[in-house]
Amino acid sequence: MLFLMNTDNKICVNCGKTFNRVKMERSKARFEKMIACSRECLKEYNNVEGTKRLDPATELPFVSGVSKRTVGGEKQIFHRYNLSRVIKTGELRGYFKEDWKKA
């Protein structure tokens, strides 16, 4: 017996609901690119409002010229939050982009 129905399932990144390729009537190639269950969820996911990330050591926002970190053996000093850019992917999603300078 030939099975024509493929039951591919994904979880929406915005609302967490499971959505199915067969119910949405999408081709396999198109379904692989999808990350949200609907256009409304995708718009809500893409329109992220930024917040300032807190310094893990003090639990307060980073202070320009005072907050320090070490990345790859290089010491850096916090310069500013870039309030016009919001990180849209990864574990820092939803936070403003941070500018750091070499110490």
Number of E-state strands = 5
Write out the strand line-up for the largest beta sheet, numbering strands in chain order.
3-4-5
User: How many alpha or pi helices?
Assistant: 3
Q: Please outline the major beta sheet.
A: 3 strands, antiparallel
Strand percentage: 25-35%
**Spans where pLDDT lies below 50 across 5 or more residues:** none
Helix content: 10-25%
- Summed over residues and divided by their number, the pLDDT gives a mean of 85
Number of domains: 2
- Judged by helices, strands and strand pairing, the structural class is alpha+beta
SSE order, as H and E?
EEHHHEEE
What is the straight-line distance between the termini? 68 Å
Task: Give an account of the 3D structure.
- It is a single chain.
- By secondary structure, the chain is an alpha+beta fold.
- The chain folds into 2 domains: 9-46, no CATH class; 48-103, no CATH class.
- Helix content is 17%, strand content 29%.
- The chain contains 3 helices and 5 strands; from the N terminus they run E-E-H-H-H-E-E-E.
- It has helices at 21-24, 28-33, 39-46; strands at residues 9-11, 18-20, 68-71, 74-86, 96-102.
- Strands 3-4-5 form a 3-stranded antiparallel sheet, with no helix packed on it.
- The longest helix has 8 residues, at 39-46.
